[in-house]
Structures
1.
Amino acid sequence: MSAVRSKITTIEVLRNEPLRKHTSWRVGGPADLFYAPAAVADLRRILAELPPGTPVHWLGLGSNLLVRDGGIRGAVIATGSLERELERLDEHRVRASAGLACMLLAKRCVRWHLGPAAFFAGIPGTIGGALAMNAGAFGGETWTHVESVTTIDRGGEVRERPRADFEIGYRTVRGPANEWFLAGTFRFEHDEMSSMDAIKSLLARRNAAQPLGVPSCGSVFRNPPGDFAGRLIEQAGLKGLRRGGAMVSDKHANFILNVDNATAADIEALIVEVRAAVERATGVQLEPEVRVVGEPLETAGGER
Ligand SMILES: Cc1cc2nc3c(=O)[nH]c(=O)nc-3n(C[C@H](O)[C@H](O)[C@H](O)COP(=O)(O)OP(=O)(O)OC[C@H]3O[C@@H](n4cnc5c(N)ncnc54)[C@H](O)[C@@H]3O)c2cc1C
């Protein structure tokens, strides 16, 4: 089925939009309804006008999402096209909107001599995705710096919420149900030494350790306490293991790569297999870091 463009009132909606176009794994079936609003006012109207029973899924840059091959029933809201806001509020505080790439926050903070923020350059997603995941890199974590967030609820109501309204853990964030992030206010320290060279050297370290340039979702599993998922997967002898077009990376065992037109089912089967094999070999149960959403093809009514 091909994607169809139409408008609900004046807001553009894509029907049956293939989500493989919007995920870093380059897999994923169609979304029934796909919105890429340009303004928060449009987003509020979309949420208010969607029938209350319609499920709503949020999408940043799709760099931590495995969307199954049958796609997503309901509406997908992509934040990447929302108006981007990156403002220095005062000596220590910066406000960044959800659709902004984390890399931009890192670069601007360097220019403002605020830190530690260079680690955001290692997260290839949006601010909204980083807030939802408590994304972290090179020892830094998103919520360490969050002072407050702006959210929107299913009815389109916008709120400012303090950090205290959220329970934060390693790659987990629990907050009020059915609210999503529109922006975050971050607090950093004055850092005279911050420089673009710091970002460049962090990225060089990452490039040396990770198989970039082949579609992936970064680390598939969370690191268990005191250990590394990649080390356990390597110890279980799983580097290079393949299912269909999906393969456990030879370079970094916690990466599953789409090496040859993989389906989401190939990737999911490999995730299940790696998890079982690591448990057999080491006794450790790995928990996925990637979010798996949508329906497999069988329940979605066959080939689309
Ligand atoms: C090569 C590579 C390297 C990576 N390295 C790292 C790393 O070092 N550290 C790390 O933490 N992650 C890493 N990741 C994973 C990923 O970049 C992060 O999890 C990132 O925060 C996801 O952001 P996103 O915008 O792509 O979110 P998406 O993948 O689009 O969404 C992820 C989750 O966040 C939700 N979400 C998105 N936007 C919002 C919003 N505005 N409000 C509420 N919920 C929202 C989605 O519904 C979904 O559940 C890597 C990924 C790749 C491909």
2.
Amino acid sequence: MADKPFLTDIKTLRERARRHIEKGAVTEGYKADRETAVKLLNEALATEIVCVLRYKRHYYMATGIHSEAVAAEFLQHANEEQGHADEIAARIVQLGGAPNLNPDGLSSRSYAEYVEGETLLDMIKEDLVAERIAIDSYRDMINYFGNDDPTSRRMLEGILAVEEEHADDLVSMLGELGN
Ligand SMILES: [Fe+2]
Ligand SMILES: [Fe+2]
């Protein structure tokens, strides 16, 4: 097989890098639409924060015979969602955007919903629904970023894998509770 040609010659790469250095990580070779990328990542950020708040609520409100193990799981998920929010916010800044942390409109920017749930079982089901929404929305975003923004894509792939684990944990919990 013939060697793949190097995509941009070194001289051009060096010249391009010197222009607009204030844009930091966003170079002329950045292929995604930056505004759309920031908008999508802000929606992901809102989703993660809503998930933190919902899991925290569930953590504090979990009662009943099975509550201890389930509450521990809720807390772990809350902390992992917070980690995702932090990763996403940092990426937004790298792309020259600003993380939208305004509580006004938070739940409408989020894909997942904030549902309190009455019983432990309701809480687990609502969390599972929210994870499934997050999984599908991340899959769409991953397709959007594709090779145009591989850094955002890889970040979201990592997050997606954790959301799938969360969904799996929740299904196991449902099974243990006899549903
Ligand atoms: Fe998450
Ligand atoms: Fe999750």
